Amino acid sequence: MKNPNLFLPGFHLATLRRRPRSASRRLADQLTKIRQNSISQLAKCFTDFIPTQSLQPHQSGPQSRQRIFSKENTFWGFFSQVLNADGGCAEVVRKFHAVAASRNRSLPSSSTSAYCQARSKLDESDLVSIQAHTSNQLSRRDTDHLFQGRRVVVADGTGISMPDTPENQEIWPQTRVQKPGCGFPQAYICACFNLHSGVLLSYDLGNKKSHELLMLREQWDTFNADDIFLGDKGFCSFYDVFKLRGKGVDSVITLARRKPVTAKDADKILGEDDFLIHWPKPKWTRRSSYSKDEWMALPDQLVLRQIKVTVTEPGFRTQSFHIITTLVDADIYSAREIAGLYYQRWDIELFFRDIKITMGMDILRCKSPDMIRKELLMHFIVYNCLRLLMLKAAKKAGVPVRLISFKASVQALRQWEPLLNSELSTQEETRLLSLLSDSIAASVLHIRPGRREPRCKKRRPKNFQRMTKPRHEMQEALHRSQHRAEGA
After folding, report:
1. Is there a single domain that holds both residue 182 and residue 140?
2. CATH no. for residue 304?
3. Whether the predicted pLDDT of 287 surpasses 70
4. Is the separation of the CB atoms in 203 and 171 below 8 Å?
5. Alpha-carbon torsion, ordered 229, 193, 377, 365, to 10 deg
6. Mean pLDDT over residues 205-218, rounded?
7. Same domain, yes or no, for 238 and 140?
8. Same domain as 330, residue 307
9. Are 155 and 222 in contact (CB under 8 A)?
C-alpha cells in the first residue's frame, strides 16, 4: 500500500499545480467565448441605433447566462429572421450552424426548439423600449426635411392576418361571413409615421371592431407642439381636431360626414376655392365616441379653412375633394402648398407596403398572442433601423431619402451581412460599411407621375376549391369518398 504522505526528494508539489488565473484573465476568456458564440454581424450596422443596455443579460432568471441563444444572439437572430426572405426559425438555426462551422466549433442541434424558447423569453418591454429608441433617433436626425420648418405626422390603418389558433382567434377574431376553421384571425393596426423620413413613430393594435380614430387617440402622446397631423377622411372629427389643436398640433384632413361650405356661407374668401369657415359643434348622442362631459367642454364652433382640390393629373379615380385644415393663415400656407402636402399622404400607403409586402408582415407566423405582439415589434424595429440607414446614406450622398428604394436597401443589407464577420479589422469594417452606404444611396427611384394602371391582376391563381368547411370535416369527407371508390 502506497503511503499518501510519501516525500519525493527533488519535487515540490506546489509547483505541479496550475497557477490561479487572475480576474482579468477570466474576464478575457469569457469575452472570447461570447464572441465565438455571437452572430451579431448586423449589430455592426446598427450599433448607433439599438440601445446596447437593452440587450444585456439579466441578473438572474431567463436569459441570464451567456449561452448560444443568449439574449443578444436571440435578438439579432430574430432581427435577421424578419430581414430574410424566408423568415423561418430553421433558417436562423442554420445561420448558427454556419457561424459555428466558420469558427471551427461543434454544430448546435438542428432543432428549432431552443431558439423558439429563447425567443419567447425576450421581454416585450425591452422590445418596446428599443422600438421607441429607434423612433426617437430617427426623428432627431430628420431635421433637414420639414414642411415650413414643422414636422408632419401622417396616420392611417391597415390589416394583417396570422395563424388560425384558438388563442389568436379569441383576441383577433375572423370575419363573421367565414365559418369557423375556414378563415384566419384578423388584426388591425393604426400607425403614425414621420412623413418625410418614413419612420414609424407609434402604433396601436386592435381587432376588426377597432376604429382607427379611437386607436389614434391612444397615440396622442406621439405628437409634439408645432407638429402637423395629416390624415384621410377617417380622421375627420370635430372633437379630435379641437383636442389636437389644444396640444399645439395643426390638422390637414379630408372633409367627411359634412357638406362642403359654399362661397356665400363662408366667413371669408381667401382665394379661388379657398374659404375661411366655421364648424358648429355636433350634437351628442349615446353613440358618440366621447362622454357628454367632454362634449360640454367643447367650444360651440371651430374656425377652419376649407380648400377644394381639383385633380387634373390622369390616373386618379377622384376628380375633386375638399381639405379641412387649421392652417388658416393663407400668407404662410398657400392653398397650393397644402394641396401638395396632402398629395404626399399617399406615402403612408407605401410605408405599409414596405413593411407588409417587402418585409412580410402581411401574414405573421407566430401562434400565440404574446409572440404575435413581439413579432410585430421586431418588424417595426427592423423597419425603423432600415429607414435610419437609408437616411444616413441619403445625407452622405446628398440624395433626398424619399427617392431611395426601400426594397433595394433591404437587398443590399442581406448581401452585406455575411461579409461583416467578427474577424474584420476596424479599417476593413469601416470600408465595407461605407460601401454599403454607397450601395443604398445608389438605388434611386425614378418618379413617374401620371401613370395609369388597371386595378386588376394578370396572373391567374391555380384553380383549387376554397375551404368552405373546417379542415377535419373535409378530410373525413375525402376519406369517405375514397372508401366508396375502393368499394366500388
Report:
1. yes
2. 3.90.350.10
3. yes
4. no
5. 110
6. 94
7. yes
8. yes
9. no
Q: Is residue 257 part of a domain?
A: yes
* Total of domains in the chain: 3
Q: Give me the pLDDT at residue 11, please.
A: 47
Assigned domain for 138 exists? yes
d(CA 274, CA 287): 33
Whether the Cβ atoms of residue 124 and residue 374 lie closer than 8 Å to each other: yes
Strands of 83-196 (E only): list them.
152-161, 186-194
Q: 274-298: buried (b, 16+ CB within 10 Å) or exposed (e) per residue?
A: bbbbebeeeeeeeeeebeeeebeeb
Contacts of 480 (CB under 8 A, 6+ apart): none
Domain identity same for 45 and 103: yes
Alpha-helix runs per DSSP H in 224-315: 238-246, 292-296
The answer, yes or no, to whether residue 17 has pLDDT greater than 80, is no
Say yes or no: 179 and 328 in one domain. Answer: yes
Beta bridge partners of 251: 229
User: What amino acid occupies position 343?
Assistant: Y
Domain that holds residue 398: 377-441
Q: Is the dihedral of CA 373, 375, 379, 384 positive or negative?
A: positive
Cell of 239: 372633437
| 18-to-14, 32, 111 alpha-carbon distances in Å | 9, 21, 39
Each residue's pLDDT tens digit, 402-441: 899 999 999 999 888 888 876 778 888 889 999 999 999 9
Residue 119: pLDDT over 80 = yes
Residues 163 and 97 grouped into a single domain: no
Does a structural domain hold residue 364?
A: no
Cell of 173: 377574431
And the C-alpha cell for 154?
401622417
What pLDDT is attached to residue 143? Answer: 52
Number of residues in the chain: 488
Residues 90 and 138 grouped into a single domain = no
Q: Are 228 and 241 in contact (CB under 8 A)?
A: no
For the entire predicted model, the pTM comes to: 0.87
The residue type of 443 is S
SS3 state of residue 254? strand
* pLDDT digit string, tens, across residues 292-343: 999 999 999 999 999 999 887 766 667 789 999 999 999 999 999 999 999 9
Residue 440 contacts by C-beta under 8 Å, 6 or more apart in sequence?
Answer: 389, 390, 393, 404, 408, 409, 412, 413
